[in-house]
Amino acid sequence: MQFNSVDFMIFFPVVIAVYFIIPKKVRMLWLLVASYYFYMSWNAIYALLIGGSTVITYVSGLLFSAYKNGNIKRKKRVTMIACIVVNLGILAVFKYANFAIESVNMLLGVLKISAIDHRLDFLLPVGISFYTFQALGYMIDVYRGDVEVEKNFIRYALFVSFFPQLVAGPIERSKNLLNQMRHIEDIQLWNARRVASGSILMVWGLFMKMVIADRVSILVDTVFNNYRMYGSTELIIAAIGFTIQIYCDFGSYSMIAIGAAKIMGFELMENFNAPYFAKNIRDFWSRWHISLSTWFRDYLYIPLGGNRKGTKRKYINTMIVFLVSGLWHGANWSYVVWGGIHGAYQVIGDVLKPYRKGIAEKCKVNTECFSWRLLQTMITFVLVVFAWIFFRADTITQALRYIKRIIVKPTPWILFNDGLYNLGLNRTEMNILIISIVILLLVDMIRVFKGMTLDAFLFTQNIWFEWVVLIGLILMIFIFGEYGPTFDAKQFIYFQF
């Protein structure tokens, strides 16, 4: 059940209506039932996996508080390690087993040894990486003593499976979402401003997905699937197109999830903050997929030693985190390379920082002005676009060939004839896309320069302006959104991760 489906348009109002009228004491149970129904709409059997992960981490948390005698610290550590191994083991089997077999076969081929003739016929459970990390985060927090152990199984099961953010995040922390669920009976049922705020975020998310992401995906797929037919201009446009697509696709899911949760009275963590306005790669990762980047910081980078064990160790830890982050995104070496590129960006940027500062001082460059910030943003954007090519390509080889054609096949004339309208979108569709991207840019500029999300900004305006914007977005979704019987509905990209 996707957020942009008719099924969800029926499911969500029903869940909300029942949630608002049932007794306070059964709210958690109702949301738990709704969450499992939501998840089982993809593949009912895989509810056993999320249920298993929930039970394992729940029991582990109880054991931490149950140990009273003997070497308590050692028992807790063994329990934590066992819980991590089991959960990551399940993730590895379903997500990485075939990748491991293929990688071994590649190595065997180089050594001229017979390949392993076996593949596991598993359908990747949707959202498994997200709920696994969320459950492990709770277990580690309890182990560290950062949060109290949750003894109410229904409440904990709802925390792991809460349907708005279940399959593509944000990856919530127990300090935030679980603590809110502990006070679910105190949530004010109807708050007009809160419901309006959540509704605006959901509408904006649907606009990002249906009007921008699903439209630009047509252009991106056309070029990437036939990249040998195109020259540099088309390839660059498609790379930039994918940069916009993945932001609008993934960002829209998070936006709809945050909005849906807000209507019910829950505040989910921010997951995106105008990432393409970042002034460097480190800043980019403080704005992009915030829930994952902070998860890796708290549960991998810092435990590895962070920056506490010297500069070299800091760089090694940085590379480990980004390589793992790449692998988390998908069972393909191209994802690992993408992560490695971002890790290298951070290391190189840190190494060159004093030299850049020295050059700027000697050349008397004003680093506080708008033009300097603009230059930083443009350079960062180019670096991010380059890395996304490896993320989008099916293989590393395809990515390298794609980049090579950008260098050796210049086609500047495409910008001055009708060539741009032969990339899967006609003139009308391309114009709709351009206008929609301008709207996206304006909303992100409000986020950057005003420090406000769209809903907060609209609440500061006159009521007529608020309604014009909201109705305008809804009309654009219905008129220009990509849907209908002739449209091949696009699943949210991050469902596969």
What does this structure look like?
This protein is an all-alpha fold. It is 68% helix and 0% strand. It has 18 helices and no strands. It has helices at 6-21, 27-40, 47-66, 72-110, 128-144, 153-161, 174-181, 192-224, 232-263, 281-285, 290-301, 311-329, 333-362, 370-392, 396-408, 427-449, 454-459, 463-480. Helix 1 packs antiparallel against helix 2 and helix 12 packs across helix 13. The mean pLDDT is 89.
Contiguous helical run count: 18
Which structural class best describes the helix and strand composition? mainly alpha
Strand content: under 5%
Helix content: 55-70%
How does the overall form come out from the CA principal axes?
A: globular
Biggest beta sheet summary: none
End-to-end separation in angstroms reads: 16 Å
Low-confidence stretches: none
Query: From the alpha-carbon coordinates, what is the Rg to the nearest angstrom?
Result: 24 Å
Could you spell the SSE succession in H and E letters?
HHHHHHHHHHHHHHHHHH
What's the mean pLDDT score?
A: 89
Number of strands: 0
Query: So what's the oligomer here?
Result: single chain
Short description:
68% of the residues lie in helices and 0% in strands.
Give short descriptive properties of this protein:
mainly alpha; about 500 residues; 18 helices; about 0% strand; about 70% helix
Indicate the topology:
Elements: H1 6-21, H2 27-40, H3 47-66, H4 72-110, H5 128-144, H6 153-161, H7 174-181, H8 192-224, H9 232-263, H10 281-285, H11 290-301, H12 311-329, H13 333-362, H14 370-392, H15 396-408, H16 427-449, H17 454-459, H18 463-480
Helix pairs in contact: 1-2, 2-6, 3-4, 3-5, 3-6, 4-5, 6-7, 8-9, 8-16, 8-18, 9-14, 9-15, 11-12, 12-13, 13-14
